[in-house]
Amino acid sequence: MERNLEQIVAMLQEGNTEEGLRLLQEREKHADHQEMYDLAMIYNELGRADKAQPLIEELISHYPDEGELYTLAAENLIDMDREDEAMEWLLEIKEDDDSFVRAQMLLADLYQLQGLDEAAENRLKIALEAAPDEPVLLAGLGEYYLERGDFSKSIPYLKRAEHDGFEYPEGSLELRLAEAYSATGEFESALRYYEKGLKEHTDVQALFGYGFTALQLQDYELAARKLEELKDLDPEFVSLYPYLIQSLEKIGNTEQALKVAEDGLAVDEYNDVLYTESGKLYITAGDEQTGEHRLREALSLNPGNIEASLTLLKLWDTQEDYNSMIDLITYLREIGEVDARFDWFYGKALWEEDELEEAKEAFDSASSVYNEDRDFLEEYGRLLLELGDRKKALTYLQAAARLETPDEDLAMLIADLEEEL
């Protein structure tokens, strides 16, 4: 008994694939045009684009003006990784065809995959001219700009799609708008869209964006709450940890911030940023030895970690460990790390070690950056005074006094030098 298509499909759904495919192939031999189309759709549902494609091409030979068939052929070819052939079919679809807009969107995707962004954008604009109020196209153009990082361009299209009631089959239009607003610095608008979008759709990347945006608005409690929520949801989302630590520090919860740093290192033991944050927190908590150890770990993983180096230099400066300061900065210079802050610390350490001329050279290197820093100007002035250059010393000390009302000691020193000179 010959089975109809519904019976064959049921057989396939029950797992009798080999027999089902054999029967489908038998039906092809005597299929009319409608059955050929139905068979092609069944093959597509089974993920057998290779079987569907000859049927679609046969139908195109009979209906050369049916753009839908060309689109189906192109989609099958894309599934078979034959993108160039897919483009040829899509380019055949005429502008007055109902499938024209869909074809332009597919072409845009294909051009984008090939890195031809300008060609992709042009296809989307052609489609928009043909269907200026099509919500799916507006959303597509908005997402195109979003993926490209052109966030300000994406917002108007996404807003129009939102106004027209567009909804993604997967994901959230609101969360895409939130991302775009956050990236353009419109944090208040971003926060509203994150709030709305996350009520409807849980997304770890969006939750991270929500916490980050709240941090930019200095709403540290909200940032900590959302990032903690993300941590509970996906503890291996390593990027959250530095921002959660920062949020917790800002609300004065150093103990919890330290725990978060340790949790982060348990997830990623090679993360130099987390070693740095951990080291800073231990120092704040009074455990300078552990803090120093963590900072050294950070530098062993990434010698170019400026934050770790500066934190160590500040620690050693307070501990008057000037030899360690000199050794670290010498090493950093050897590996090509250059920073005016290093020069300042180097100058201070050399000064304390009575290497005055070398200290002056280091202060000279830093002076172009710190010529409006009150502490730097006073320190340099006092170094110059010790070197005997009283006139130049007075210039730096006066500059420091202009930036901030001097204390009694500095005021008296300036007065004595002015009187002397």
TrEMBL record:
Keywords assigned: Repeat, TPR repeat
Q: Which organism is it from?
A: Alteribacillus iranensis
Pfam families cross-referenced by the UniProt entry: TPR_16, TPR_19
Q: Does the keyword Metal-binding apply?
A: no
Listed InterPro entries: CellSynth/LPSAsmb/PSIAsmb, TPR-like_helical_dom_sf, TPR_rpt
What is the name of the protein in this document?
A: Tetratricopeptide repeat-containing protein
Which SMART domains does the record cross-reference, listed alphabetically?
TPR (SM00028)
Q: Where are the TPR repeats?
A: 171-204, 272-305
Q: Which SUPFAM superfamilies match?
A: TPR-like (SSF48452)
